[in-house]
Design brief:
By secondary structure, the protein is an alpha/beta fold. 46% of the residues lie in helices and 17% in strands. It has helices at residues 12-23, 42-55, 69-76, 89-97, 113-125, 132-146; strands at 2-7, 27-32, 60-65, 83-85, 103-107. The structure holds ribulose-5-phosphate. Ribulose-5-phosphate binds next to α3. This is Ribose 5-phosphate isomerase B.
């Protein structure tokens, strides 16, 4: 799988993320503080990595910042992106299963090396749900992106 990874901080867990993905056989492209000479601001590097997913340059992006919030907010501004901030394996599995998330957002502060591996295991093991309501929800996100969403049913 081709995976784009961004981080606004050169933290050990961000380096471990890249190493772990490469160890698992993925092709990794890095942005932000992980890329020599690049702009390490969270909104910019998260956007750059996230854009690779709808453009087709990557199959998945993982965006990181200290809290994970800025990275996920920036990624979710990119049309076609469904970024999920995951702090544990259960959330990662649900993000793939129920949200068909295509960008994983991580908090550099909260994610230990052990939890990182658990999150990656859960993320890659899960598949998007075929349930009709789950597909309707994900389709609704696409409509919101396109500005064509019908009025919310609340
Ligand atoms: O979590 C973040 C954004 O959501 C950033 O990583 C955090 O704001 C970086 O802070 P600083 O530039 O002061 O090191």
């Amino acid at each position: 799988m081709r995976i784009s990874v961004s981080s606004d901080m050169d933290e050990p867990v961000a380096r471990s993320l890249v190493e772990e993905l490469r160890r698992r056989g993925h092709e990794v492209c890095v942005y932000g503080a992980l890329e020599p000479g690049a702009d390490p601001q969270w909104a910019f590097c998260s956007e750059a990595a996230a854009r690779d997913v709808p453009s087709g340059a990557a199959d998945l992006a993982v965006v990181c910042c200290w809290t994970g919030t800025g990275a996920s907010i920036a990624a979710n501004k990119v049309p076609g992106v469904r970024a999920a901030l995951c702090t544990d394996a259960y959330t990662a599995e649900g993000a793939r299963r129920w949200n068909d998330a295509n960008v994983l957002a991580l908090s550099l502060r909260l994610t230990s090396e052990a939890v990182l591996k658990e999150i990656l295991d859960a993320w890659f093991a899960a598949a998007p749900s075929e349930d009709t309501e789950d597909r309707q929800n994900v389709a609704h996100l696409g409509m919101l992106d396109a500005g064509r969403a019908p009025r919310s049913r609340g």
